[in-house]
From TrEMBL:
Homodimer. Residues 208-264 form the CBS domain. Keywords: CBS domain, Cell membrane, Magnesium, Membrane, Metal-binding, Transmembrane, Transmembrane helix, Transport. The lineage of its organism: Bacteria, Bacillati, Bacillota, Clostridia, Eubacteriales. Its main location: membrane. The keyword Magnesium applies. It is found in: Cell membrane; Membrane. This is Magnesium transporter MgtE. It holds the Pfam family CBS. Belongs to the SLC41A transporter family. Acts as a magnesium transporter. It is a multi-pass membrane protein. The chain crosses the membrane at residues 293-311, 367-387, 399-420, 441-462.
Amino acid sequence: MDEKKTFDEAAEEIVSLAGEKHFKTIREKLLVFNSPDIAEILEEVLEEVGITETVIIFRLLPKDISVEVFSYLPSDDQVRIINAITDTEISYIIDELDFDDKIDVLEELPANLVDKILEKTPKNERSLINTFLNYPEDCAGTLMTPDYISLEQSWTVRRALRHIKNVGMDSETVYTCYVKSAGRVLEGIVSLRTLVVSDDDVLISDLMHTDIVSINVYEDQEEVSEKFKKYGFIAIPVVDNEKRLVGIITVDDIFDVIEEEATEDMERMAGVLDDSDTEYLDMSVWQQVKNRFPWLFFLMLSYILTGSIISTSEATLASVPALIIYMPMLMGTGGNSGSQSATLVIRGLSVGDIELKDALRVLWKEFRISFVIGLSLSVLNFVRVMIEQRGDPLQVQIALTVSVAMVAIVVAAKCIGSMLPMAAKKVGIDPALMASPMISSLTDMVSIGTYLLLAGAFLGVIG
C-alpha cells in the first residue's frame, strides 16, 4: 500500500514538474523507476500536460531505456510520439525494438510512415517484416517473433551451448530451443536445463522431445491463449501448413490477448458492439452512441412484445389488481436467474470446461438446480403473499399463482440462460452476446406470459 502510494505521489509530482517545464529534475526522478513504471508516468504526462512536454522528457531518457519505455506505452501513445519525433529517432526506436514489438508498432502507424521506415530497413529484414504485416488480424502470425534459438539434430551439447551463448542475447527466450531439419521442419524441442545438465558429447537428437505442442500460423489468437492456459508453457512454436517453423509466441505476448478477449466478452455481455482498441475516455460520444444504440434498439423491440402480452391480459389484471404488484419481482427474478446460468455457461465455454456435446448434461443440471431454487423461493413467496393479501377472498389463489409462477419462471429462465450461449456457439455466434441484456429480455416475456397464464388458470379469469 505504501509502495503504491509512493509511486502515485512521485507520478503526480513529475506531472506537476512537466507542467512547470523542469525537465532536468524530471529525468533524475524518472530514472529511479523501471521501464514499465516510466511508461505509466509518461502516459499521465501526455494526458495531463501534452505531447510536446512528453516528447522532450522521452528524448532526455537514455536511448536504451527510451526504447524499452516505448515498448510499454499503449499503441495510441506510441503513434502520437512517433508523429512528433524525427525520422532518425523513429528509425532508431524501430531498429532497437524486439521484432514482435516492432510489428505491433508498424501495424498502428499510417501506411506512408511505414513505407518510409521500411525504405531504410535492410532488404532481408524488410521482406520478413512485410510477411508478418500481411498475416490476417488476430491470428497467431501477428503475435509471433522470429527471434528464437534453433539447433540441429547432429549437433553435440557442447556446440549447442556455444551457439546459445552467441545468439542468446538476440533471442526472445533461451529456455526452450527448437530443433529443425534442413527444410526448416520442426523436429523437436530441447530445454536449456536439459542441455546444461547433459554431457558435452551427447547429440541433440538423443535429448530432444518430439511430442511437440505447436500452433498453426493462421490459428485464431483466442485459441492460442487457450493453449497457453492449458499447457502452462512460456513459449509455443508456430508452424506453417507444411510444419515448417516460422516463429514462436511467448507468454508475455499472450497477456494482451487474454485482456483483449476478456474485455471483448464483457462488452458483448453488456450489449456494447465495440471492435476498436480505443480507450473509453478517448472515444467520441458519437462512437459510443454507435456502439450501444443497435443492441438497445433490438432489446427495446423485444419489450414491445412483452407489452403486447400484458395488453392481451387486461381483463385478468383488471379483475385482480393485486396481481400487478408481483409482476416486477417475477420478471426480475427470471432475468437474474437466466443471467446467472448464462454467465456460468459462457465462462465454461470460454475456458473449455463445457463443450457443445455437454448440452444435455448442462440442461439436466440446470433444471435440477432451478427446480430447487424455484421451489425454495416459491415457499417464501407463498408465506409473503398470504400475509400481504390477508382479508382478500382470493388470497390463496393469488398466493398459489405467484408461487407456482415462481417455480416455472426460474426453471424456464435457467434453462434458457444455459442453452442460448451453447446454441449461439453452435451456429458460430459469440456466446457472450447471449448474456444479461438478451437473457433478461427473453425471460421477461416468458415470465409475464407464464404468470398471466397461471393467473387465468388459478383465478378462473381469462384475459
